[in-house]
């Protein structure tokens, strides 16, 4: 469980503790006194192994933070999401690098069930703000993962990154019918926090935002519940708010060959071992859908609602037979069924690793739920994977009568953090 906030021994304290500046006291708030500047690197040395008292089941146990790839991508999808996109408000490259170092140090602690900073929520100097907000004290790690990505807008002329923008991070085209709201789209940096406990996920995002004060500001964020995809064969396929199993043909962490081919970026640049994330907030007109006949709902998706089997099949994972016809001579799966339009066989063998969540953001003031799907898909190159699939769906999918895309994001997610001397995006700034 997260630490009790006891004050560290003298040898672990920041030597400048007795002469804190006004910036450290009131403006930094970043990771408390100990995480300022070079202290952020020292803080990483304080990351410890999770305590033995921590529950070992998958719901509460920690997920390893260090590795070749970032956690939170092929990690078995957790139940809750807090996704946030930040704008960088400093124009100083050194401050951005320092922020990423501090964030990485905090993330290494948080994902192991510890507090964001060395002093914790109640162990630092009383005249300084705590370096953890405290609402997750006594809660286990809850399989928290924190995954970071860099948006196209980060690669302008502010930080000398213009020439380092990957070709695969090309702006998405405008798709027919989308109604994007600029204020909840884009962003310089994204953080995806997934956990089995929503308070743990929210706590992590809150503390990263606190650490980033004065260097980043929140552009938009999204809470999600009830994962809509399985990323492991050990997980049952969940349902979206339309009642259908979602992402049956998703890439899974067990699909080593397919992951190498369709998920992880290759080459010798800073993105090798990373991946690309597309997000779309898709609002559903729930009330209209709920008045649609079962036969029409199943025809639109091309699947049986209860079993999830492709029409004409018997079980969820039966391969769809797009040539099979019913007694009336018509295809079991209509030419414009969602399953047909999105299938890899109709999109140049494009596979995606989907990691979406349901959302309900209250009502719209007109007696309708503001609800739908927060879609997230990881892939090796959005130009050859997400773009052709979404183009086909935007043009022909009858599901468009019941949904609208209101937010969009595109992010380059760097490879994993290898050890305590590494940090998110280090190779980009090398």
TrEMBL record:
Domain Dyp-type peroxidase N-terminal, first and last residues per copy: 70-225
Name listed for the protein in its UniProt record: Deferrochelatase
Annotated stretches, region: Disordered: 1-22
Compartments where located: Cell envelope
Reaction it catalyzes: heme b + 2 H(+) = protoporphyrin IX + Fe(2+)
Family membership noted in the UniProt record: Belongs to the DyP-type peroxidase family.
UniProtKB keywords: Heme, Iron, Lyase, Metal-binding, Oxidoreductase, Peroxidase, Signal
Enzyme category, top tier: oxidoreductase
Pfam families membership: Dyp_perox_C, Dyp_perox_N
Cofactor annotation remark: Binds 1 heme b (iron(II)-protoporphyrin IX) group non-covalently per subunit.
Domain Dyp-type peroxidase C-terminal: 237-417
Annotated GO CC locations: cell envelope; cytosol
Function of the protein: Involved in the recovery of exogenous heme iron. Extracts iron from heme while preserving the protoporphyrin ring intact.
PANTHER family assigned to the protein according to its UniProt record, in alphabetical order: DEFERROCHELATASE, DEFERROCHELATASE/PEROXIDASE
């Amino acid at each position: 469980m997260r630490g009790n906030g006891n004050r560290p021994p003298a040898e672990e304290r920041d030597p400048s503790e007795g002469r804190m500046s006004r910036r450290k006291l009131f403006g930094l708030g970043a990771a408390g006194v100990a995480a300022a500047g070079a202290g952020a690197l020292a803080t990483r040395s304080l990351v410890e192994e999770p305590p033995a008292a921590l529950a070992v089941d998958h719901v509460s146990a920690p997920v390893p933070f260090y590795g070749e790839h970032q956690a939170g991508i092929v990690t078995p999808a957790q139940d809750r999401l807090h996704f946030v996109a930040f704008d960088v408000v400093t124009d100083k490259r050194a401050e951005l690098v320092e922020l990423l170092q501090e964030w990485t140090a905090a993330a290494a602690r948080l994902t192991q069930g510890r507090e964001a900073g060395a002093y914790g929520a109640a162990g630092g100097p009383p005249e300084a703000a705590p370096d953890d907000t405290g609402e997750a004290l006594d809660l286990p790690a809850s399989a928290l993962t924190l995954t970071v990505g860099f948006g196209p807008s980060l690669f302008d002329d502010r930080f000398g990154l213009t020439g380092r923008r990957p070709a695969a991070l090309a702006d998405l085209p405008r798709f027919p019918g989308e109604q994007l709201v600029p204020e909840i789209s884009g962003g310089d940096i994204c953080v995806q926090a997934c956990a089995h406990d929503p308070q743990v996920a929210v706590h992590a995002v809150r503390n990263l935002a606190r650490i980033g004060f004065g260097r980043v500001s929140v552009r938009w964020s999204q809470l999600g519940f009830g994962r809509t995809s399985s990323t492991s064969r050990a997980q049952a396929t969940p349902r979206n708010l339309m009642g259908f199993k979602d992402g049956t043909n998703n890439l899974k962490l067990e699909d080593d060959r397919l992951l190498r081919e369709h998920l992880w970026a290759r080459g010798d640049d800073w993105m090798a071992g990373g991946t690309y994330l597309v997000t779309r907030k898709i609002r559903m007109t729930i009330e209209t859908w709920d008045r649609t006949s079962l036969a029409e709902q199943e025809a639109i998706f091309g699947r049986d609602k209860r079993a999830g089997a492709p029409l004409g099949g018997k079980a969820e994972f039966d391969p769809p037979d797009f040539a099979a016809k019913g007694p009336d001579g018509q295809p079991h799966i209509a030419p414009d069924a969602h399953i047909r339009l999105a299938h890899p066989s109709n999109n140049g063998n494009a596979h995606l690793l989907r990691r979406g969540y349901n959302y309900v953001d209250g009502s719209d003031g007109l007696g309708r739920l503001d609800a739908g799907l927060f879609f997230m898909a990881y892939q090796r190159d959005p130009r050859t994977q997400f773009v052709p699939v979404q183009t086909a769906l935007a043009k022909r999918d009858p599901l468009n009568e019941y949904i609208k895309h209101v937010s969009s994001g595109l992010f380059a997610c760097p490879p994993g953090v290898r050890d305590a001397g590494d940090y998110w995006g280090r190779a980009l700034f090398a």
